[in-house]
Amino acid sequence: MTRYGMAVDTARCSACNACSMTCKVENNLPDTVWWSEGKTEGGEVRYTPGGSYPDGLTITYYTLACQHCSNPACVSVCPVDATYRRTEDGLVIQDNELCIGCKLCVEACPYQVRTFYDTDPEWLIGFPVGDDEAPAHEINYVTKCTFCVHRVDRGDMPACIEICPTQARCFGDLDDPDSDIAKQIATRDYTQLLTEMGTGPNVYLLK
Question: The whole model's pTM is what?
Answer without folding.
Answer: 0.90
